[in-house]
């Protein structure tokens, strides 16, 4: 029972097979493709699929091949209709763009899958088309990435067929290539030489070449005839078959040739297929060329047949494929075609042309190998993919110095100590020059591996952009015109130059500084002793002196404790005296200021506070003055009219300028900082011109005096080290670097940059700097005494606090004096009222009179003894006000006179003496 059941199941499963036992496919080739590698690859793909029992085990592919004339769409349409009548489930080819469009229109109308392996420039979506050729927009992106990596700024695009311009138009329209100068030239085998000659005359060294493969050898011959096969030229070919061309004549001239390939011949799986394919090819015909490398078209044709087979395999798992029964006459679509094209469109595999994936019939996943011609062969140097972009795995391949034997033209400018002529006159060639840059160039040439020939730039300028003419000059012009390969010297890297030429990594960092003549010693004057204190301090000292004098005078007259009995032997004096007149107050303050005695000493607490605070003030002032005077007398002082760029911009007496047509001049011209803009306006309008043609001329003008030279700090350091009459003023105005310049897109830049970085890490550049800058036998001995430690006058910021202390002390003294006056008056009044019951003048009235007397600045130094009884209320007496002015000199007509100890006391006349009430002297008024 088991055996019949198994037979029944086999019959049922066989009857339910989704695919018919035979599937017919058609292929259309042009007549010139008969027995070509593309046709053989198609036949081999069908053979391999039928031989593979795992892919389509119960189905056999049967093909029908038709040949049509190229550009004959009528016959191509008839051949396609014959295949449709034959019952094909898919049509392959042709590769001709015009014929392919007509064949697709028939397949699209009948819902028959159309598989192509050609470049299709039509961007419209085609429902029944599957194209394995990479889309042109993606290829253009690959070309753009390579051009960006090579840093191309001037390129010529040479195309042959009309659709070649449409194919490469995105290279011109791309926003990333707006700064690239593009020249478009159409050429055919008859005009190759003329077009290449024109490109050479315009000094265009980068070319994108899109020619027919069968004409490539003619184009290469034109390159050889015009000698455009040296290292300066770089050719980027759009073909995928550069490995099949004979490049033997270009391997040893160091010409740069780059192209993509779509078949990775180094892949193990690809090599197995190619090996088996080589055994399949019939006698007299070959799928592979002599180097066993398959071209792109047969590889894509092979992959297209496998894509169709995998699509059938996937459809078999869920659908039944009905045989097509359509014709061009009835125009009835095939009902199974839509399902089949959808399954084919979802296929993902890895074929001869790399990873394959589709979206709406167009290939979106693939990998391109970037090939570069070297001396032995074309080598893979990178990859490109739609998702990852370009990835250069061997950057050195674009510049392989190992076996190169080229001589580069190096231009420079004579500039000490960078490039100098040797003293010997019998030298020739590179041996004529010496200097820092010459030594550096020698080290780099040894590391990178090239010979060089040094030449001087004709106009002797580094290069600056002329705003009026719109042209560059100097070294920059020479590099832009490709008249030199390198430029070595003190050439500054800046934005303007970097936009037209290339620079290596900087080998030296620097900035702009000011070169000036060493200032002369300051001439001595009669009033040098006043320099330790600033003018503001001297004015404040005078104001403090006056304030102290007036305060002492006023408080002495106001305080009752400064009035003394001039006759200490008389217990009841007629009057009291005050030692602090204006003259004595001035003398006391003066003597204290000069640290001398004055013979006048305060007695009251308030006046003693004034004296004490004044002593403290004078202690600080005199000590500070003495200390700073010693510094002024021992420290060398220089007359420095300018200290920085702001000082230079703020005056017009000292002229200043830069090197003509240099980066320093460009810095000031283009600067947006107001100080530097002001300096540029001065330099631009100054007559005679402040710009100099060489550094030597600028240095000589500085030595002549009244001129400041704005130059780069490294050169300034070299000059100052050797001439003690010159010095640097201020710090650096900017920060920049020196680099080795190359033409835009030069292959030497990256290698030289790596060499510079290695020399910096090893410290060899610093050793070269010390050799040429700090040679002990070539530098001057500079006296650095006092250069950075000159004395400065003291100002308010230094000793201003002592004036605040003085003011506070005087304020305290005034408060104490007021307290003394009030307290003493009240106590005396109470004592007299207890001793004498007679009527008294009111306390307020007496205090008012005493205050008025004290505030009279021109009053007498003596006054009558204070009486607390009201003289107006005592009968038989005459009231004498306390403010009565007494005669300044003693009478000589028989009156008794008597000299006090500190004043000139005068006795009243007899006719006034009897009016005086016997004084009541308080113990506080007795003489001590």
Keywords:
32 strands, 928 residues, 5-stranded parallel sheet, 8-stranded mixed sheet, 39% helix, 29 helices, alpha/beta
Structural class: alpha/beta
Q: What fraction strand?
A: 15-25%
Largest sheet: 8 strands, mixed
Rounded radius of gyration (Å)? 55 Å
How many helices? Answer: 29
Helix percent reads 25-40%
Describe the structure.
The radius of gyration is 55 Å and the shape is elongated. Residues 1-17, 785-789 and 866-928 have low confidence and may be disordered. It starts with a helix and ends in a 15-residue tail after the last helix. Helix content is 39%, strand content 15%. By secondary structure, the chain is of the alpha/beta class. Helix 9 links the parallel strand 8 (206-210) and strand 9. The strands form 9 sheets. It has an 8-stranded mixed β-sheet with strand order 7-6-8-9-10-14-15-16. Helix 16 (535-558) runs antiparallel to helix 18 (605-634) and helix 20 packs across helix 21 (674-685).
């Amino acid at each position: 029972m088991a055996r019949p059941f198994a037979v029944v199941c086999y019959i049922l499963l066989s009857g339910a097979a989704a695919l018919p036992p035979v599937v017919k496919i058609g292929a259309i080739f042009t007549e010139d493709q008969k027995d070509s590698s593309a046709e053989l690859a198609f036949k081999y793909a069908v053979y391999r699929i039928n031989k593979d029992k795992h892919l389509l085990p119960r189905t056999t592919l049967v093909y029908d091949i038709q040949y049509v004339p190229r550009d004959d769409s009528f016959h191509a349409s008839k051949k396609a209709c014959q295949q449709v009548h034959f019952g094909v489930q898919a049509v392959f080819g042709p590769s001709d763009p015009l014929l392919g469009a007509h064949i697709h229109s028939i397949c699209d109308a009948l819902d028959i899958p159309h598989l192509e392996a050609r470049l299709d420039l039509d961007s419209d979506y085609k429902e029944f088309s599957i194209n394995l050729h990479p889309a042109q927009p993606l290829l253009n992106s690959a070309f753009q990435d390579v051009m960006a990596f090579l840093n191309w700024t001037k390129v010529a695009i040479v195309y042959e067929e009309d659709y070649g311009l449409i194919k490469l138009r995105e290279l011109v329209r791309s926003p990333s290539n707006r700064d690239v100068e593009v020249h478009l030239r159409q050429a055919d085998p008859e005009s190759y030489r003329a077009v290449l000659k024109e490109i050479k005359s315009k000094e265009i060294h980068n070319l994108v070449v899109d020619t027919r493969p069968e004409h490539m050898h003619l184009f290469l011959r034109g390159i050889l005839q015009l000698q455009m096969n040296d290292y300066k030229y770089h050719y980027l070919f759009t073909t995928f078959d550069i490995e099949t061309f004979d490049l033997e004549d270009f391997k040893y001239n160091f010409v740069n040739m780059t192209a993509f390939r779509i078949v990775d011949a180094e892949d193990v799986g690809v090599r197995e297929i190619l090996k088996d394919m080589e055994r399949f090819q019939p006698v007299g015909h070959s799928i592979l060329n002599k180097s066993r490398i398959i071209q792109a078209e047969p590889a894509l044709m092979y992959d297209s047949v496998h894509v169709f087979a995998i699509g059938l395999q996937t459809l078999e798992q869920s659908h039944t494929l009905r045989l097509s029964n359509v014709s061009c006459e009835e125009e009835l679509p095939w009902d199974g075609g839509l399902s089949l094209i959808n399954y084919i469109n979802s296929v993902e595999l890895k074929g001869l042309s790399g990873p394959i994936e589709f979206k709406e019939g167009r290939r979106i996943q693939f990998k391109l190998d970037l090939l570069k011609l070297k001396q032995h062969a074309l080598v893979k140097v990178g990859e490109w993919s739609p998702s990852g972009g370009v990835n250069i795995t061997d950057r050195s391949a674009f510049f392989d110095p190992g076996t190169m034997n080229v001589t580069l033209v190096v231009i420079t400018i004579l500039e000490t100590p960078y490039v100098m002529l040797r003293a010997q006159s019998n030298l020739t060639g590179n041996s004529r020059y010496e200097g820092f840059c010459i030594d550096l160039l020698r080290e780099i040439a040894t590391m990178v591996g090239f010979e060089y020939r040094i030449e001087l730039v004709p106009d002797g300028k580094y290069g600056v952009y002329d705003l009026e003419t719109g042209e560059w000059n100097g070294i920059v012009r020479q590099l832009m015109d490709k008249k030199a390969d390198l430029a070595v010297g003190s050439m500054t890297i800046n934005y303007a130059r970097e936009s037209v030429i290339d620079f290596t990594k900087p080998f030296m960092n620097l900035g702009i500084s000011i070169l000036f003549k060493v200032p002369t010693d300051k001439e001595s004057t009669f009033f040098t002793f006043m320099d330790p204190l600033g003018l503001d301090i001297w004015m404040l000292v005078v104001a403090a002196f006056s304030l102290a004098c007036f305060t002492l005078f006023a408080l002495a007259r106001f305080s009752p404790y400064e009035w003394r009995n001039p006759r200490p032997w008389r217990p009841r004096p007629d009057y009291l005296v005050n030692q602090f007149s204006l003259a004595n107050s001035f003398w006391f303050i003066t003597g204290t200021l000069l640290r001398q005695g004055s013979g006048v000493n305060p007695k009251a607490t308030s006046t003693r506070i004034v004296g004490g605070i004044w002593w403290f003030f004078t202690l600080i002032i005199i000590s500070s003055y003495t200390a700073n005077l010693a510094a002024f007398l021992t420290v060398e002082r220089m007359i420095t009219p300018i200290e920085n760029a702001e000082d230079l911009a703020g005056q017009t007496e000292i002229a200043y300028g830069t090197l003509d047509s240099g980066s320093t001049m460009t810095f000031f011209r283009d600067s947006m900082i107001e100080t530097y803009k002001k300096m540029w306006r001065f330099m631009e309008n100054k007559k005679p011109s402040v710009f100099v043609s060489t550094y030597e001329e600028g240095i000589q003008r500085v030595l002549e005096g009244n001129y400041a030279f704005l130059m780069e700090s490294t050169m300034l350091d070299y000059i100052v080290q050797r001439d003690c009459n010159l010095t640097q003023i201020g710090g650096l105005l900017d920060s920049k670097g020196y680099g080795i310049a190359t033409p835009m897109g030069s292959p030497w830049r990256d290698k030289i940059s790596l060499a510079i970085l290695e020399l910096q890490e090893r410290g060899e550049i610093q050793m070269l700097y010390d050799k040429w800058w700090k040679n002990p036998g070539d530098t001057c001995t500079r006296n650095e005494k006092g250069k950075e430690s000159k004395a400065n006058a003291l100002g308010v910021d230094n000793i201003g606090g002592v004036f605040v202390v003085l003011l506070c002390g005087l304020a305290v003294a005034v408060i104490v004096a007021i307290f003394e006056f009030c307290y003493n008056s009240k106590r005396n009044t109470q004592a007299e009222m207890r001793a004498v019951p007679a009527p008294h003048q009111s306390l307020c009235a007496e205090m008012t009179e005493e205050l008025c007397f004290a505030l009279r600045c021109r009053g007498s130094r003596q006054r009558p003894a204070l009486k607390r009884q009201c003289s107006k209320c005592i009968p038989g007496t005459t009231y004498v006000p306390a403010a009565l002015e007494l005669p300044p000199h003693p009478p000589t007509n028989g009156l008794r006179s008597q000299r006090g100890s500190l004043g000139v006391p005068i006795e009243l006349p007899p006719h006034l003496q009897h009016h005086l009430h016997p004084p009541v002297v308080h113990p506080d008024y007795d003489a001590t």
